[in-house]
Amino acid sequence: MSTATVRPRESRDLAEAATVLTAVHESDGYPVEGVKDPEAWLSPEGLLAAWVAELDGHVVGHVAINSPQPGEEVARLWREESGDDDSHIGVLARLFVAREAREASVGRLLMEVATAYARQRHLRLVLEVLTKDAAAIRLYERLGWQRIGEAVHTFGGKQFDAVCFVAPA
Predict the structure, then answer these.
(1) What end-to-end distance do the CA atoms of the chain give, in Å?
(2) How many angstroms separate the CA atoms of 86 and 103, rounded?
(3) pLDDT score of 1
(4) Which residues fall in a coiled-coil region (predicted)?
(5) How far apart are CA 136 and CA 118, in angstroms?
(6) What is the distance between the alpha carbons of residues 114 and 93, in angstroms, rounded to a whole number?
(7) Which mean pLDDT values do the consecutive 10-residue runs of the chain (169 residues) have?
(8) How far apart (Å, rounded) are the C-alpha atoms in residues 101 and 111?
(9) What average pLDDT is seen over the chain?
């Protein structure tokens, strides 16, 4: 298998990333919000930076860092634990990898790039992951992320249990 590369996301990447996201949603149920407008979902309010992973010239993964948004439980938990304010917190989000690229360590590569970006900007990264997404939880734990609490993710009248993590210091 070829080696994946990670680079900053460009506007021309959105359509291909949206196609990958739709396929991931169909196979894994991520995101639970669905993908009615995947390009909009990939560019949320508070987006600070985003990257794509490529394999053989095709987008196979994505990750973003957002600023904390009002009511975001993971940011609240970290503020209470650390005393940091929102200007020192980044929320890792929109991480997904095409099923066919998961053996190429694409998730780890995306996480490394996002973590380096955050460190350069003195941001502590936090994230929320649904408990059903066991493979993602294993990745975060392998990379040294620490659990800081639990949350409930609500969408479409349904509630989903989630775990909140903070990146290693």
Answers:
(1) 33
(2) 35
(3) 59
(4) none
(5) 20
(6) 10
(7) 90 97 94 89 96 96 97 96 96 96 92 97 97 94 97 90 96
(8) 15
(9) 95
Report how far residue 26's alpha carbon sits from residue 35's, in angstroms, rounded to the nearest whole number: 9
List CB contacts of 134: < 8 A, sequence separation 6 or more: none
Q: Which CATH architecture has domain 5-166?
A: 3-Layer(aba) Sandwich (3.40)
Q: Which amino acid is at 126?
A: V
In contact, 50 and 42? CB cutoff 8 Å: yes
| C-alpha gyration radius of the chain | 15
**For 89-131, how does the pLDDT look when each residue is reduced to its tens digit (9 = 90+)?**
999 999 999 999 988 899 999 999 999 999 999 999 999 999 9
- Are 92 and 51 within 8 A, CB to CB? no
